[in-house]
Amino acid sequence: MAADPLTAAIDAGTPLVVLSPHLDDAVLSCGGLMSHAAGRTKVRVVTFFTEAGAPPYTLSGRRYLRQVGQPDAELLYRDRRAEDREVLERLGVDWRHLGLSDCLFRRKPGASGGRAGCLRRVLPESWYVYPTYRLHISTGRISRHDSDTLSRVRASLEQLAAPPHTVLLAPSGVGGHVDHVLVRTAAELSGRTVVYYSDFPYNQQHRLDLDFVERNALVEVEWSRQLAPKVELVRGYRSQADALFPGGVIPVVPEVYLLADGDRVSHGPAGGAR
Ligand SMILES: [Zn+2]
């Protein structure tokens, strides 16, 4: 049986670039495919939101820090970057950390002094682009205070995905986490040929955004190889594994990729990149 176009492109040695919102998403969602690709072609993971910020934090920020057992967000993100390097180097793939702040720690631009500064000390939420997880971060709506972040993600994508004949993987934003939606939006606006991945483990509880699937004419391809080694890679994200998988059981489920309805999965000088 002929391989699907994604597998065929990788087996033919087409380089793979995986866009990862956070320091674990690429492996969580694409670890099986990346394990297969690592020995066959050049693989690079580009992670966008790799930094935290200084206190005071929002209630949602403090709750997350309590959940992972590290009250100092800067130290947590230092550990997370180290974990990511360790996992990806073990896998034999290239990595880049782009240094944008995670949305839990992203503040509105502007001064911190005066009356606004007083309010921000009493109510840190007033200082943040996304004041709460439930009502802001998980809705998938990009805040009007976050247009600069979208511009930075788009500019990074233009530079990093420039080499022709690359398979570009981006999140499909299942679950509506706004950092995932930002990267998906930048990928969609790039005009390039993009293969989207279904965001694990969000996809265990949430469905794909059907408007997004329809407007890009995407079809699903399941990937079921290399899932056991992937579980070991996921365990390498020690600071996150307990919070992501309470009870310690990491579900072994196929990865899901969304391809444009057609044969081409890599962009090239023939017209894919604009
Ligand atoms: Zn994420």
Explain what you see.
This protein is of the alpha/beta class and 274 residues long. Helix content is 39%, strand content 16%. The chain has 10 helices and 8 strands. Strands 1, 2, 3, 4, 5, 6, 7 and 8 form an 8-stranded mixed beta sheet that branches. Helix 2 (25-38) packs across helix 9 (227-235) and helix 6 crosses helix 7 (178-189). The site of zinc ion has 5 residues, from loops. The site of zinc ion (ZN) has 5 residues, from loops.
Task: Characterize this entry briefly.
This protein has ten helices and eight strands.
Structural descriptors:
single chain, 274 residues, alpha/beta, Rossmann fold, eight-stranded mixed β-sheet, 8 strands, 39% helix, 16% strand, disordered C terminus, binds zinc ion
